[in-house]
Amino acid sequence: MAAMIKKIGVIGSGQMGNGIAHVAALAGLDVVLNDVSSDRVKSAMATINGNLSRQVAKKIITEDARKQALGRIVSTETMEGLSDCDLVIESAVEKEEIKRKIFHDLCAVLKPEAIVASNTSSISITRLAASTDRPERFIGIHFMNPVPLMELVELIRGIATDDATFDAAKEFVTRLGKQVAVSEDFPAFIVNRILLPMINEAIYTLYEGVGNVEAIDAAMKLGAHHPMGPLELADFIGLDTCLSIMQVLHEGLADSKYRPCPLLVKYVEAGWLGRKTQRGFYDYRGDKPVPTR
Ligand SMILES: NC(=O)c1ccc[n+]([C@@H]2O[C@H](COP(=O)([O-])OP(=O)(O)OC[C@H]3O[C@@H](n4cnc5c(N)ncnc54)[C@H](O)[C@@H]3O)[C@@H](O)[C@H]2O)c1
């Protein structure tokens, strides 16, 4: 079954979707990239081209590999454009109702033997699978950000995921050169169950005035040897995604220790979502990032 994955679809061409398309095309797979508008897919293609060119400049890949990878990616604005894919990975916003609607529309046109996956950071794979016509061929394939650089992918089985689907997903991920960590289907899985409460606590530290943005990030970089400060990392992930993950943890585990920090809620309500909107805990509109608090 694993050998059958030759063509993949990616729904949502934001920072994660374009990264998944990038690594899959470099690994020789045909990729169909989808988003809500042609503008979004166009800007994703420009990002992929820029990131591939950077890899050429660093001599990680050849110019020929860049051209071939780009040639393997096509775009579509419709679900019909994904109908003959062997595997479709949903990587749209971290909102359950949006993902459920995508799966509903996708399954209506997707060939029955195809596997459907979600790159969700936190939402129950079993619950998402139940919104499809093929829970046995549904799986969580959770990539890390930025996809071309990060080694890990978490694989999460829903209650109904069959062995053939798990094996095919594992072989697909291995083909991309990634290492697999298997997680049970619990809110936020392994990495985000540990990482997001730490980030949320850093935001509480800011909210309570224990330290300012620079002090908190410097403390964790220099005092705990984290490569990025937690607030810088939150901006990188996207504050909307951080909030959605905390909400899933809070609701799913029903424990007040996961309560999203009100300051995180405020930033999201302001539309200050981090790097992708140019403003979050830092303002990225100038030459160098400036703390917003
Ligand atoms: N940001 C991270 O660090 C990270 C890491 C791992 C997994 N994820 C997960 O990946 C997914 C995407 O996150 P992202 O950071 O790429 O977000 P993003 O905001 O960069 O991109 C989301 C994209 O989804 C598109 N979209 C929204 N509704 C859609 C629909 N109905 N059909 C098709 N496309 C639609 C948006 O237009 C946007 O381009 C989320 O589930 C997130 O939890 C994120």
TrEMBL record:
Domain 3-hydroxyacyl-CoA dehydrogenase NAD binding: 7-185
GO process terms (BP): fatty acid metabolic process
Protein name according to UniProt: 3-hydroxyacyl-CoA dehydrogenase
Ligand binding (NAD(+)): 12-17, 35, 94, 99, 121, 145, 276
SUPFAM superfamilies (alphabetical): 6-phosphogluconate dehydrogenase C-terminal domain-like (SSF48179), NAD(P)-binding Rossmann-fold domains (SSF51735)
Upper classification of the organism: Bacteria, Pseudomonadati, Pseudomonadota, Alphaproteobacteria, Hyphomicrobiales
GO molecular function: NAD+ binding; oxidoreductase activity, acting on the CH-OH group of donors, NAD or NADP as acceptor
Keyword hit for NAD: yes
Native source species: Bradyrhizobium lablabi
Family: Belongs to the 3-hydroxyacyl-CoA dehydrogenase family.
Domain 3-hydroxyacyl-CoA dehydrogenase C-terminal: 189-284
Pfam family, one: 3HCDH_N
Site (Important for catalytic activity): 142
Keywords tagged on the record: NAD, Oxidoreductase
PANTHER family documented for this protein: 3-HYDROXYACYL-COA DEHYDROGENASE FAMILY PROTEIN, 3-HYDROXYBUTYRYL-COA DEHYDROGENASE
